[in-house]
Design brief:
266 residues; mainly beta; six-stranded antiparallel barrel; 4 helices; 15 strands
Length: 266
């Protein structure tokens, strides 16, 4: 990393430049393991276990800003078709324990990106992920019986960063990937790109809100919700040199990524 001149840079810029240099010359190591077989039956006993972000909220002045996603948006050809519903079971759980519900994003027909805490759970001491049920087009338990709108795949492998596996709290490494058994069909993978150092844009969080219960069925996290807000950011000013925003499902309770308004990129 010789040749860098930090004399005129603030601390945030120095951190970003140093990280960029390290990423170019360093290998990225991940923990990867195979997942156990499961089936397409939808768990009735489910729970949302949050990885709390105390600084984010969708409630301003007591008003919940989340909006339920239109069914057309998750139907074939819909703009959110590549956002998937996850049911997760961990190695330390008993058979009678509830499945954890979460959200993932398809970045390839057979590859999902989600949060690192979905792959290895520190907060609730459940450890490594063991089984994954994945649904495209999920809109409540009854919808899963319609093969024209809902597809199922089981997870085969999962990978997350070694930094997340070593210790909880490394939020910059809270990332995981899940490989499914067979590719989903008729979906357009969501593109991803590097975050600009600064900017302003309409950013949104889209996914299955675990704290919202469907009144007609009593199912937790049955429906997909979205929330968008004009957001200004500067990575140099961030304590963690990360994109920070004040939109979230419920004080940090979605395993979701930020998307720009047109949902072409994350």
């Amino acid at each position: 990393m010789s040749g860098l001149d930090y004399s005129t840079e603030n601390l945030g810029a120095q951190a970003l430049n140093t990280t960029a240099q390290l990423n170019q010359i360093s290998n990225t190591y991940v923990g990867i393991w195979n997942l156990e077989n499961t089936n397409s039956s939808i768990p009735v006993n489910v729970e949302f276990r949050s990885s709390q972000n105390a600084h984010s909220s969708n409630k301003i002045g007591g008003t919940d800003r989340r909006q339920r996603v239109a069914e057309a948006d998750i139907a074939p050809g819909g703009r959110y078709r590549s956002i998937v519903k996850l049911f997760l079971r961990y190695a330390s759980q008993r058979e009678s324990d509830p499945w954890t519900i979460a959200t993932g994003w398809l970045i390839a027909p057979d590859l999902i990106v989600t949060a690192g805490h979905s792959a290895f759970d520190w907060s609730h001491k459940m450890g490594r992920l063991a089984q994954v049920k994945v649904y495209v087009g999920y809109n409540g338990r009854a919808s899963a019986w319609d093969p024209t709108s809902v597809q199922f795949q089981q997870g085969r492998q999962v990978a997350t960063t070694t930094e997340w596996l070593k210790s909880k709290g490394f939020r910059g490494y809270n990332l995981a990937f899940i490989k499914v058994q067979n590719p989903f069909t008729g979906i357009v993978p969501i593109k991803f790109q590097d975050t600009p150092r600064s900017g302003i844009s309409s950013l949104g969080v889209v996914g299955y809100a675990g704290d919202i219960v469907d009144f007609s069925t009593g199912e937790k996290g049955a429906r997909m919700y979205e929330s968008f807000s004009n957001t200004r950011w500067n990575l140099e000013d961030s304590e963690y040199t990360m994109l920070e925003y004040d939109i979230d499902s419920y004080g940090g309770k979605w395993s979701d990524l930020a998307t720009v308004q047109n949902v072409n990129n994350i």
